Fold these 3 entries.
Entry 1:
Amino acid sequence: MGGHASHPLGSIEHARGTFAACAMKRWKPRTARIRPVAGKLEGEGNFRQEGNGVVLKKSIVFVAPLIVAVGVLAGLWFTGRSANPGAVGFRLDDAWIHLVYGRGLLENGYLAYDDGIPSTGCTSPLWAVCLAILHAPFGRSDSADAVVRAVILAGAALHLGVVATATALARRLTGSGLAAAGAGGLVAAATPWAAAALSGMEVALTGLLLLLAAHGVVRRAWTRAGIWLALAGLARPEAGAVTLVLTGIVVASAGRRAAGRVVLPSIVAAVALAGHHLWASGSPLPATFAAKNATSLTALPGRLATVLTEIFPGIPPFGAGLGWLALAGLLPGGSWIRRGAAFPDPAGAGSSLPFVVGLAFLLANLLVLDPIDPPAFYHLRYVLPAVPPLLVGVAVGAHRLGRRLPARAVAAPLGILLLLSAIGAATTIHPVSRHFHNDVRNINEVQRRLGEWLRANLPPGTRIAASDAGAVRYFSDLPTIDVIGLNTPEMLAGDEEFVRRHPVAAIAWMPAWFWPLDPDRLEVVFRASTENYTVTSNPRMATQLVARATGDDPDVRRGSPVRVRFAGFRSFQLDFAPFRTPASPPDAGP
């Protein structure tokens, strides 16, 4: 018709005619990647045939990993819920510290641990901003359950965002819907990572921002990538190392001008944050750096070995160590691979970018922090933001490895990887869920209970001290001295003037960490403990005490402060005000 030969729909000639017409109109349809195979064109249902491999429709590429992610999140929430029959909560006391800062930001207009006193103890100011936003509508009731549920749902939403971004990044790097869905599926099925999204910590936020930054660099959207990197640095300081690495890559590939657009937002954010710290404490560094810093270049190889042998094996698909083999696909060239492969090796160095991002974050973290308790989520959460970019790198590597193999084995590496991930998720989802909920119960029965008791037994405005300074501060709503110094740096510096000017009525402390050198000057008025303790590997940390100055102490009778010295994890001194607190049975437990 119209001077053109007519060909049956689905024939090779019809396909060629369609593509020729598209080329003449300078228009490329979404299905332009369909190719003729074995004398016919396959394009039915949710799968299409391209060359010698299977290609997924775009809708399935993005929807399938999200469905897996929702299923894994649901499994993590419900399968082990019996481990915590009580109130919802968080598995780390640090999550409650973040919530203290979120509430303080909302009420004071700046980051504050105690109302009216700016503080530099928040390692993730961006997460504190997010929690302040959630605290505005959900934190007004007497019960904390509403804001806790809002934070958990926000974390789940961030996890879904990570899965979608991982899918998009892998598709951008490979052009393959199967590789993209595989990358999203790997992130969705990584059960410890998914559980971290429900923890109330900044893990999912940081992982999302790292992937968005990598995606921006791959798309050559330099300014956008720079903004994501700046935000990632405000979520976790280790992201600064990722900024440096990506800036170097952009300098080499696109020049200094593009690199300047990548690094400038991070410079602005770093200067603003340092200015805040100088204003709040007189130091450009956060108080947490001085308290937790364990920087050691010589210890880095051993720390990396600990992570690779004791932490990552619990994350599908790294359980058997086979997941790492897919990284061979990221190596350049392919002369060592069998000749006659179905596809030429795509030589784009950008394929390694997600892996480089994850590795940079991981090494930066291990350079500063020592994972001394690998089974504990406390240390796992520090390295988890590196997991999504590493998994995307593994998926891309498996895809590239398959393209170097004979035609019938094109999808084998990625298929094996997904199978390992599915098996790993199926076998770990219940124990990971029970561990998660048991941690929450432990924190509720100790730190949260201490805070609630202090609020019920001390007048508003009474100053206290605490070794775990999150839930105690949040639930007591009392001015609190953090004796470890994360939120009260004067204690870390041993500031005598500060101690004398800030006497406390009571201290909530962990006897596994500290003990009084003057025990006769204190009396225990409350004890909180929990069973089957899994927050750390030290069962002695399952008990904490509340103590006050002994009533018959001569200084108390004279109305003078009682000085008590503590030793242990860190040495410090406190003045106890001559103030009688109501006493409960000291053996009160769960």
Note: The chain has three domains: 1-41, 60-216+274-435, 439-576.
Entry 2:
Amino acid sequence: MFIDRKSGISLIGDLPWGSHFCQLYQTKNDLLDILVPYFKAGLENNELCIWTCSAPLDENEAKTALKKAVPHFKKYAASGQIEVISFNQPPAGGETIHETINSKLDKAIQCGLDGMRVAVNGIENAALSRHRMIAVSAYPRDSLNAARLMDVVKKHRFALIQNAGKWEVIESSEAHLARQALRRSEEKFISLFNNMSEGFAYHRIVLDAEGKPCDYVFLEINKAFEKLTGMKKENVIGKKVTEVLPGIEKDPADWIGKYGKVALTGKPLRFENYSEGIKKFVSVSAFSPYKGYFAVTFSDITERKRAEEALRESESRLSEINKNLEKEVGKRVEELRRKDLELEQMRRLEAVGRLAGGVAHDFNNLLTGIVGVVQEAHGQLPAGDPLREDLNMALNAAQRAFSLTRQLLTFSRRQIAVPQVLDMSVHIAEFQKMLNRLIGEDVTLHANLQPGIGHVRIDPGQLEQIVINLAVNARDAMPKGGDLFIETAEYREEKGTSPVHYVRLTVRDTGIGMDQKTLHHIFDPFFTTKGSKGTGLGLSTVFGIVQQSGGHIDVRSREGQGTTFDVFFPNLGTDHPEAPQERKNDADHGRETVLVVEDEQLVRRVTCGKLRRQGYNVLEASTGAEALELADKFHEQIHLLLTDVVMPGMNGREVAEALAGKRPGLAVLFMSGYTQDILDGKGIADGETRFIEKTTLNTDLLRKVREILDKPKIS
């Protein structure tokens, strides 16, 4: 049973806690014969060992003998698990020897040791018989007469005495009768323990460096425990639960936390829960007999729980699911509209720079998941279904919300810029229809977009932000309607001996115009001429993007004669090697294996679904540690790691570095919704080409994955 401890002395075998016996010696070798194996067993039993020496044996001789007999003695001594001191050495703080020993016992248990064993000279005090302590008192045999000898034996569990060169055990008749009664009691207890129908286990709690429960150790289990769990005694005793049931620390039932509270507070606990480790529902009673330890009895209630669950099911389950799906779509559309309004209000805050990062990350994660699910639902509806128009409205609202977060981030200079070489005229033409809806029916849009005049390097989303902000400003300047002109053209500027070539974007309106005083402030943050309807962020955002892209902006305006904005971007020519190439219909398909690491469940589901529908073999993990474990178990080639950057535990950069050593040639694509200042601390530099924003996952993911996989590998 768990109360027995190995004594180390073959003559007496195991001893229960609380045992106090004595040794009658004549020489120092007599002491060493008994006490060296006694303390060796104590160290191996995870006990604090204190050896108090007196004549004829001093502490140096005792230490020398232990060093020879105990492997790794120095390690035990350095950790403080073994103390060899002189009986004449006074205890610290004026305590008696008994007070010192008892206080050390309490500290040992708090530090995770099972208990304590001591050896002292000639002490009979009952304090040395506490639970979780084993003690031996040594008496010089030649100093005891017959009466004193019998008195000593009576006061101890038994005595060890050498007779004709052999050690023998002697005990008084009272001790013998008490021991027989104890044995009978233990036999009854053992019979009850092994035949009870409920599972029983006895444990020691394990604390981390901060004193919080992080694990527990199996000390004893009964046969019912083995039957209910399928675990064998020889496979669990002495082991930590995290070794026996890997992953239990992540179980939402929080077994370690619950039991730790019982062991540390002494308050019993009763509860019912599902055990992921044994795949059963259990009814549990836990109590603590001693601080730092706890016992558990439990029974299997799986059948009862299944019966209860069956009673709660109904024939209307399928129709209820359909109703819930309709409600969920409506809820997400409404939530998207609400978030749009909240973000509009948030733009008015002066602390927008500090708030932008966190807002954009959470909001973009939500939007990415919602857009992915709405797109999936849209694709499954037949043509003409009235719900398709509702879903189109949701997608349009999501794109507006994405634009709002971009504006916040660009203004605060925290946006994740992913510049691309593109034909500006072609890109603007692709979202011209959205511009028509944005400016309304009272404004007529005239577009003169010249393709093939050269490429520019800019983040596509930022280019859209420039055009949208200038178009919205023009619309607001024409409250009674008017004309809006958007044009692109080549532009050559003479600078010294070498001309500089630009692609010029012109946005011109026929609105109310501005005076010169207003013109001087239009790019200032929070400056607005629209009163409470304006935020003062639109043009400051445009100015920041243009500067980031290496360009410049001019503005001309007169009151009553409209306003013209000219935006100049460096012209990279018509045949730049980084320009996008014409893609085949099946260009986004693939058969490669992609490992996706993303802690946000909804984003992970949408991302993996898109890849699988294009033919990719997808492995998915919610944490870095799970990804490494999955990669170790997957013996075929993994072609691409697609990983979130900011995650609990390991970040994306750390996951990539850990896999690089194991899988040379593994391609990597990072994704995130966090702002650039956060990503800088995670090793993702501004302009990183192996990066995709989460806001563009629903539109650019497949293209970017194919682009990374098709890049030639550097040998």
Note: The chain is about 40% helix and 25% strand.
Entry 3:
Amino acid sequence: MGYVHYYPRKRDIGVRTWIKIRKDVDELLEASPVELASPLGERGTDPIVGPERIAFNGVEEDAREDFTLCRTDSPNDVGFCKTDRKPYDLVVKATLVVVYNRVPTAWYVYSDGHDFEWEDARAWVNGILGTGTSFPSP
């Protein structure tokens, strides 16, 4: 088992909306209090924020499963991420808060965590982007 966030995509995301999501996530990644890496979690690599997907992980021992969010149907889009509450969990939750606030009907977001475990992510998103207080209880 482990601590998992689930986010199966219900529908594809339009290019304009995806650009807004990417901009928000870029701001979060720039302000991240934790070190992040590419999906493989290797030190010295960068998260991916691209035209079709957003993907990142923690670094080395602080990595677990990569977080991947795709704009359209893709084999990379597994719809869940097991973070085991490692430090990058904050950024995973914050990214899910962003997508929920941008397109609440596009992903079905839920988690093994309780609502109080999402307070840090909601507050962080609000502090960085001025949004992010709306989110369903996990």
Note: Residues 15-31 form the longest helix (17 residues).
